[in-house]
Every structure is written in structure tokens, then in C-alpha cells.
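User: Please fill in residues for this 494-position structure.
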């Protein structure tokens, strides 16, 4: 009997300009949780897409239960009991939860769909995952965390023995992550094998039995999780020692740049007042659902306030739309970059230069070589992994897409930049590069607001932190080295 449930051997996948998988070996045992880690663009998602039949390898073989298999489509993979919850969820928002779970697999009675049975079965699945939700409601109405679980339930109805989770915790709160991990452990106890891709290395230690590390399309290390430290993981991913992110005490001007007074909008947030100094890095903490994104989307003109005022450098301004915000020198990098902010079928260069072409115009004409030069500068500065600036952004790995959008706003001469979860899905080394860039921008007088669910991130980069919970401002703190994330949580929950 084969030792491994799954054995991927010498997998090669070449994209134009990128050798995404260079003879990668990967194996998996029943009843284990395997962490798959590596920097942005290392090839993690590609390897899993090959396993799922979403991509065809150029060479190499997949041995499942001792037999060679070829998955030509995700449906074939599902039939062989391999299921995946992808990096970007692919549920149909307008369908109900039950419909999404059973998409393509309705409980049939004759030729008609047995609707009652479908809903019952969906309920059963959701109960198993400890989700108390009516499977009849529209999927769009439930949180990202629940959608994730719906996606897992979908793999379970196919009876999957191998479940792939591609960055499942990127947009989950601490509690939601714990909930997910309880389910992962339950599935492991049932003998299922789970592959989890994540950039949160503490989670690797918390949940996995073994870890596979990739770098530049190659396998670099496989070992038991207990035999490796986080620092060693980082070392293998980067092939060099990476300095820990340190808090830097900074100076900034005393002038107030932004003042928000008594801002309210329905249930989203209520009576919020605060001021931010010029060149300050102002953190915004809170649990997911605290109203942070809603507040700043409203300030940015994406939605209409119900009450309140905004002052820029002492002058009251009315921001009715993002266009008026941009005219006033305000930029916003949204948390959901795929839906907002990114132009998938344009190139990396075009995505960086979008909104920035004015700067490279001469006599009314765009100077394209200047545009390319500017884009190339950001590709280098942010270490964006792409064959060239001409590559379509949709072909970049998730983390690298994020860097492109950041590059765009760094190029645009904004006076105030709002970053919503700027390092979600970004690897350790790129994170510290982004922190450095944020500090550099603030040092030249750009006012920066960072919304983040990672308390440690805010404690590292923010000069002050405003803490929100359930649409209310709970407090504003000035952190120092000794402050811990528990201190912020305490303020949030008081
Ligand atoms: N469809 C595609 N066409 C061209 N290149 C691609 C395509 N898909 C992926 N790549 C390239 O293959 C490499 C590996 O990408 P992959 O998405 O597997 O990385 P990843 O390890 O999942 O990174 P991340 O942590 O950012 O999600 C990247 O350089 C990426 O740009
Ligand atoms: Mg990926």
C-alpha cells in the first residue's frame, strides 16, 4: 500500500516568461494538515491549480492512492475527492447558500430537483461546521467568514478526502480563524488530508503537522512543523535572513491635516470625531465589522454621510464622490482589490500609471517610454514579481497584484492616503518593504491612514491608533514597544 495518499512528482508548469513550477515534488498523507508556504509568486496556487485540474502541467505526474491520475477539470478532481477553497472565492453571490453548496450536484428526484432535500442536506453540512445560518438566504448577505465555510461545505458534499484551503484566513478575524481551525482539526480526525496555504506563520505552527516550503517555483524544504521555527521558515522562503520589523519612533508636524467631526451614517458608524496630523501614520484598529471600511469609504465619497463635517488643513470640504476626493489629493487603496481598483485585463504598467498619465504627458501626448520608466521603478522598489511591465495584472499572484495597486498610489502625488488592509495576503519580506515605503511617504509629509485587522502591524507602524468597535470610536492610543495587541483589544471591547 502506498505510504502517501497523494504524490505529485516533478511537476513542471511554464507560463510565458515565468517558470512557475520547476520539477516540484509534493506529497500528502491521510489525516494530516500540510502547510504550503512561500513568498508571493512562489508557485503555491499554481501547484494546487494543477492538482485541481484547473491548469495542466507541462510534465510530471500525480499519483493518488497509488494510481496515476490526470485531472482535466476541477470537476474531475472533485470526483476523485479532491476539493479546493480558492484564494478568491468563486461562489455565486445571488444564489442561496444551499444552491452554492450543491451547484451542479442537486439532490435529484426523477428529473426534478428535490429542493427540500437539498436545503436539508445543506443545513446538515453547515451544522457540522458549526454555522448557524439559514441555507435559504442569499450568499451575498453573509460575511466573508461564512462564505468561506460555505465553500468548505461544498467540498465536503462531494466527500472530498483532500481539501485545499488557499489563504483561508486572510480576511478572517481571530475568532473566525479559530472557528475555521476547529473545523480543520475535526476533518483531520475524520482522516481527511488538508492543505493550507497561508502567509501567517504563527498559524502554520498552530494548525499544521508538516510544512512544505517553496521558493521561485521550486520545492526547498519539507519537514515536520515541530522541527522548524518561524525564523527558519522565513529564511527558507527568502533564501536570506530577514530582519524583524521594528517599531520606529517618528517625528511629524503638529499641524492638523485632516479633521473629521461627528460623522454618522445609519448603523454603519455613529458620531465619529478625530484629527490626523500632517505626515502622521494614523492606525485604525478594530475587529472585522467595526465599521472602519464603511467610515473611510464614506469620507472618501463612495457613500453619502448622514451627518458630520470634514476639514482639510482647516478648511471645510464637501466630498461627494471619489473623483472629488482625488481632486483634493486623497487616495484610497481598498481592501477588495479584485473588485475595486484593479483593471484585470490591463498590464502591470497600465495599472500603475492609471490616474498618473498626467505626469508623463508632454504637449498633451503621453510619453510612453517615460510611463514605462516610472512603472519599472515601482516594479523594482516593491519587488513586484512579473516577467515585465507588459504582463497583464490578472496573471500575477495575489500578493503581487496588491503591490501594483500600492505602486499606483505611491506614484500619484496624494496628500492623504488611506490604506485598507494594505498587507493582506502579502508575504513577510514584502510586508516590511511596504512598511518602509509607508514611512518614507509619511516622512515627506504625506498623511497616512492605515486600517488593519492585524494589531501587531499597527503597533509596528502607526504613530497613533484609533480603535473602533460596532460603529463607535472606542479610544485613541499612542503605542510604544511595550504595548501588546491585548491592550488594543481591551480598548475595543470596553
Ligand atoms: N495564468 C498565468 N499566466 C502567466 N503567469 C502566471 C499565471 N498564473 C500564475 N502565473 C505566475 O506564476 C508564478 C506563481 O504564481 P502563483 O499564483 O502560483 O503564486 P503564489 O505562490 O500563489 O503567490 P501568492 O502568495 O501571491 O498568492 C507567478 O510569478 C505568477 O505571476
Ligand atoms: Mg496564491
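Assistant: Residues filled in for all 494 positions:
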Amino acid at each position: 500500500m502506498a505510504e502517501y495518499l497523494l504524490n505529485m512528482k516533478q511537476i513542471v508548469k511554464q507560463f510565458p516568461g515565468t517558470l512557475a513550477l520547476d520539477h516540484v515534488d509534493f506529497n500528502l498523507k491521510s489525516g494530516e494538515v500540510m502547510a504550503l508556504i512561500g513568498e508571493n509568486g512562489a508557485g503555491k496556487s499554481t501547484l494546487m491549480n494543477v492538482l485541481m485540474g484547473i491548469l495542466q502541467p507541462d510534465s510530471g505526474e500525480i499519483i493518488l492512492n497509488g494510481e496515476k491520475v490526470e485531472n482535466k477539470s476541477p470537476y474531475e478532481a472533485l470526483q476523485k475527492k479532491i476539493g479546493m477553497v480558492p484564494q478568491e472565492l468563486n461562489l455565486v453571490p445571488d444564489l442561496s447558500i444551499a444552491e452554492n453548496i450543491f451547484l451542479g450536484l442537486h439532490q435529484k428526484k426523477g428529473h426534478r430537483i428535490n429542493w427540500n432535500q437539498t436545503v436539508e442536506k445543506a443545513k446538515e453540512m453547515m451544522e457540522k461546521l458549526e454555522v448557524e445560518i439559514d441555507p435559504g438566504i442569499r450568499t451575498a448577505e453573509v460575511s466573508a467568514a461564512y462564505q468561506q465555510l460555505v465553500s468548505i461545505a461544498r467540498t465536503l458534499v462531494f466527500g472530498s478526502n483532500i481539501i485545499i484551503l488557499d489563504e483561508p484566513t486572510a480576511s478572517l478575524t481571530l475568532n473566525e480563524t479559530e472557528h475555521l481551525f476547529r473545523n480543520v482539526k475535526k476533518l483531520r480526525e475524520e482522516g481527511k488530508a488538508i492543505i493550507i496555504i497561508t502567509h501567517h506563520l504563527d498559524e502554520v505552527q498552530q494548525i499544521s503537522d508538516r510544512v512544505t516550503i517553496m521558493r521561485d517555483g521550486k520545492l526547498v524544504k519539507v519537514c515536520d512543523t515541530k522541527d522548524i521555527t518561524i525564523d527558519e521558515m522565513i529564511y527558507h522562503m527568502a533564501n536570506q535572513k530577514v530582519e524583524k520589523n521594528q517599531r520606529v519612533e517618528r517625528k511629524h508636524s503638529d499641524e492638523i491635516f485632516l479633521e473629521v467631526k461627528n460623522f454618522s451614517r445609519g448603523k454603519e458608524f455613529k458620531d465619529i470625531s478625530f484629527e490626523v496630523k500632517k505626515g502622521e501614520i494614523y492606525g485604525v484598529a478594530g475587529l472585522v465589522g467595526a465599521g472602519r471600511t464603511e467610515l473611510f469609504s464614506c469620507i472618501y465619497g463612495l457613500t453619502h454621510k448622514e451627518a458630520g463635517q470634514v476639514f482639510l488643513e482647516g478648511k471645510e470640504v464637501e466630498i461627494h464622490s471619489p473623483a472629488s476626493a482625488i481632486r483634493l489629493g486623497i487616495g484610497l487603496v481598498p481592501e477588495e482589490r479584485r473588485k475595486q481598483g484593479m483593471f484585470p485585463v490591463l498590464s502591470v504598467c497600465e495599472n500603475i500609471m492609471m490616474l498618473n498619465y498626467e505626469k508623463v504627458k508632454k504637449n498633451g501626448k503621453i510619453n510612453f517610454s517615460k510611463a514605462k520608466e516610472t512603472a519599472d521603478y515601482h516594479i523594482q522598489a516593491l519587488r513586484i514579481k512579473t516577467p515585465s511591465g507588459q504582463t497583464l495584472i490578472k496573471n500575477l499572484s495575489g500578493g503581487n497584484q496588491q503591490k501594483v495597486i500600492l505602486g499606483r498610489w505611491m506614484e500619484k502625488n496624494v496628500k492623504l492616503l488611506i490604506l485598507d488592509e494594505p498587507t493582506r495576503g502579502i508575504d513577510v519580506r514584502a510586508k516590511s518593504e511596504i512598511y518602509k515605503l509607508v514611512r518614507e511617504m509619511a516622512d515627506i509629509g504625506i498623511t497616512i491612514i492605515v486600517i488593519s485587522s492585524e494589531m501587531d502591524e499597527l503597533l509596528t507602524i502607526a504613530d497613533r491608533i484609533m480603535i473602533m468597535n460596532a460603529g463607535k470610536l472606542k479610544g485613541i492610543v499612542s503605542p510604544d514597544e511595550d504595548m501588546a495587541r491585548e491592550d488594543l483589544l481591551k480598548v475595543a471591547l470596553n
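For context: The domain at 6-238 is CATH 3.40.50.300 (Rossmann fold).
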